[in-house]
Amino acid sequence: MRAVVLGGGIAGLAAARRLESLLPDAEIVLFERDAHLGGKIQTEHVGGYVIEAAPDSFLSQKERGVGLCEELGLGAELVGRRPEYGRTFVRRGGTLHPLPAGLTGMIPTNLDALAASSLLSPEAQKRLAAEVDIPATPAGEDESIASFVSRRLGRETYEELVEPLMTGIFGGDGEQLSLRATFPALRTLELEYGSVIRGLLARAESTSASSHPPFLTLRGGMDTLVGTLVRKLEHTEIRTGTEVYAVRNRSDGGYALELDDDGRLDADAVVVAVPAVVTADLLADIDDDLAAAHAEIPYGSSVIVTLVYSETGVEHPLDGYGYVVPRSEGSDVLACTWTSRKWAGRAPDGMILMRVYAGRFGGPDVTTYSDTELLALAVSEVGLLGIDAEALLTRVQRWPSGMPQYVLGHPERLERIDAALEAHPGLSVAGAAYRGVGIPDCIRSGEEAAESVVRSLFAVLR
């Protein structure tokens, strides 16, 4: 038996690992068209700096992030954010407003702390406090994040508080993002408790505290996870720099993969763990509707600019992890994180490592800007921190079409994909395009895809 994984990001690697455990006697082959593995998880170590190309952490409450790290022997390498800098700001104009205490996810539940904040107007605070008395809307159609939060908490709370935090997760437009695909628990709270705030408070009382901080990274950088996972794979043949152009049905059952060297490889099982638009092309000959549903998933583009300064050249105390920028500010910039404040060991003593994130879904494609333009954008942004010195180190990382967008209709697209896959035993899909964009989501997705193809294969063999 041969099982093939297409894509060497964290979802594909997790799928290969699970296939090894489920099919110990099978031949497992993983294809990755780039020269490196790990997808967006890339870490550069230079001059005492630890520079992440994209994600620098993951949520501990989603169990497969911590779970996989512990299974790989990396439990002792997990570290949380530096508590002495434990706050975040929202930029409005040139002023940074601290986020109020008592946020549960994106939702404020401590109204006294909110009242002491400069972030929302008195009218917006009064409207938010009234949320507990607003009747729940009966179950029905899906709605956008913007519609739901504005309906429950008020428009100003959405625009000035929830929207920039939400964008920091998805890089998307809350007017288009599906609530059911992104934050379904908020709708569940409304229906169950009649109020989101009341529901969050009730659940907080009944939920035991986690043994881990909410966000975790690896002491040596996120690529520690990728490198360790790859080394732990025992009988997976990894072919980097090799592209698969198509997956076709074989007349005798199973699948045939067309390779970029005009070769062909037959497989009994295939896990496709690549961006949805690539999946659409790969599976076009197998199933029109399966391919079409993937092609309908939109993607946003983004850029991360890393800057290094001497601590003495920054006037702002940098007494936090960084700040987010609301869409209402009209800026290409989404956020600025003070990475060396957020995580220990990311820069030499006396130096500040920070990252500027740019690119909003529906806005200009910032990946088309030149390095000079992107550096100018980032330097101008951090100017509000009282920096007028030249950056001592810079990096520009582009991610064209790098973030899937769970826009309205996404749950229905997933239903179409799941239904179509039932007709193709031994075929499954994995990655950020489906049910979560974070690292633990992608790990779980890869593992579940591996389990799915094995179940369907043995069902056919029986």
What this model shows, in words?
The chain is of the alpha+beta class and 462 residues long. It folds into three domains: 170 residues, 3-Layer(bba) Sandwich (FAD/NAD(P)-binding domain), CATH 3.50.50; 106 residues, protoporphyrinogen ix oxidase, domain 3; 105 residues, Alpha-Beta Complex (Polyamine Oxidase, Chain A, domain 2). The protein is 35% helix and 23% strand. The protein is built from 16 helices and 22 strands. It has a seven-stranded mixed beta sheet with strand order 8-7-18-19-20-17-21. Helix 8 packs across helix 9 and helix 12 packs antiparallel against helix 15. The protein is globular. The mean pLDDT is 93.
Name the features.
Polyamine Oxidase, Chain A, domain 2, alpha+beta, FAD/NAD(P)-binding domain, globular, protoporphyrinogen ix oxidase, domain 3, 3 domains, 35% helix, 5-stranded parallel beta sheet
Explain the layout of strands and helices:
Elements: E1 2-6, H1 10-22, E2 27-32, E3 43-46, E4 49-52, E5 58-59, H2 63-71, E6 78-80, E7 89-92, E8 95-98, E9 103-104, E10 107-108, H3 111-115, H4 122-129, H5 145-153, H6 155-170, H7 179-182, H8 184-193, H9 196-206, E11 215-218, H10 223-232, E12 236-240, E13 244-249, E14 255-259, E15 264-267, E16 269-272, H11 276-282, H12 288-295, E17 299-310, E18 322-324, E19 333-337, H13 339-342, E20 351-358, H14 371-382, E21 393-404, H15 410-421, E22 427-429, H16 439-461
Parallel strand pairs: 1-2, 1-16, 2-12, 7-18, 16-22
Antiparallel strand pairs: 3-4, 5-11, 6-11, 7-8, 9-10, 13-14, 14-15, 17-20, 17-21, 18-19, 19-20
Helix pairs in contact: 1-10, 1-16, 2-16, 5-6, 8-9, 11-12, 12-15
